Amino acid sequence: MSSEMADSRNAVLYIVVPCYNECEVFPQTAKALTELMEKMCSEGKISEKSRILFVDDGSRDNTWELISGEYDVNPRICGLKLAGNVGHQNALYAGLMAAKDKCDITISIDADLQDDIDVIPHMVDKYYGGCDIVYGVRSGRKKDSFFKRTTAQGFYRFMKLMGVKTVYNHADFRLMSARAVRQLSNYEERNMFLRGIVPLIGYKTDSVYYERKERTAGESKYPLKKMLSFAFDGITSFSIKPITFISAIGIIIIIASLAAAIYSLISYFCGNTVPGWTSLILSIWFLGGVQLLSVGLIGQYIGKIYVETKHRPRYNTEIFLCDENR
Ligand code: UDP
Ligand code: MG
């Protein structure tokens, strides 16, 4: 559906909003997104079939009651209730999968509306301009606390160092065309780290910039503990560099053991050593290095198994021009 619809400027948009214990912000969020969607519909930017899909990620408060109540009175709203709490990334993925065959474009956004919904029309414009993926990028983090800002930025830098391709200062506020979401469904891994996978999909991509706001109500569902485990998951689901580091340290220690050998032999021949010291020092250094190198080597094989078990697609096709009858 996507490419033909793209030209008619009447694409069906699904805004996917994962919610976990968000009863405090839900009414505001539903209102703001509905108003925005009505406006875009009346301007003819998107189809009347467009919807806002709230995904309830096993909330323990009455978030689902609010979503289903809103569904009864507001034709723009859709709701998906997950059977339990599976975390932001999985909840978002569930929403995208539910939306992908009903729409031409998806936009994912957090329920707290810290991301500026006013850039959504620009994202849609970029879609009409031929982009399949449009990232919402924070131009600054002035409203975040000093702690959140430094840890988050350190995270992006560290990910880059570890060889994971992510978009700097981009969270999960992004537009994806239906076909990009379909390609995403080919990435079969269980450890979903969307910010790392989406850049692997390919296609024409672009970014829109906005200032991130404070949470309007409720509190962050990402305390430090969750943030650390999120970062750790991100790295270990994408990169086998840590294993390579082990091998590298092994090699460095073996080289250092040569220096230790020279030093201990000189001391031995100069006669200022206790009996047994030279052989002990030599074995400790050398064996230590050999052990690390061996662990690293085994790790490399485990790394390969790990990459294979992900069953990631080898490529994603964009266009295939071929006319057999020409
Ligand atoms: N969220 C979720 N499941 C969870 C935790 C969070 O669906 O287990 C949702 C949450 O409702 C929000 C989004 O993920 O829409 C981002 O969470 P939050 O705003 O708390 O994170 P922060 O902006 O502080 O990083
Ligand atoms: Mg937030």
What features would you highlight for this structure?
single chain; 326 residues; alpha/beta; Spore Coat Polysaccharide Biosynthesis Protein SpsA, Chain A; seven-stranded mixed sheet; 7 strands; binds uridine-5'-diphosphate; binds magnesium ion
Protein model, in words:
The protein is α/β, with parallel strands linked by helices and 326 residues long. It has two domains: 13-219 and 313-321, Spore Coat Polysaccharide Biosynthesis Protein SpsA, Chain A (Alpha-Beta Complex); 241-310. Helices cover 50% and strands 14% of the residues. It is built from eleven helices and seven strands. It has helices at 2-8, 26-42, 63-73, 88-99, 120-128, 146-161, 178-184, 194-201, 224-236, 241-270, 277-309; strands spanning 13-19, 51-56, 77-81, 105-108, 133-140, 170-177, 205-211. It has a seven-stranded mixed sheet, sandwiched between helices. Helix 3 (63-73) links the parallel strand 2 and strand 3 (77-81). Helix 10 (241-270) packs antiparallel against helix 11. The longest helix is centred in the last third of the chain and has 33 residues, at 277-309. 29% of the residues are buried. Uridine-5'-diphosphate is lined by residues 18-20, 22, 57, 85, 87-88, 91, 110-112, 114, 220-222.
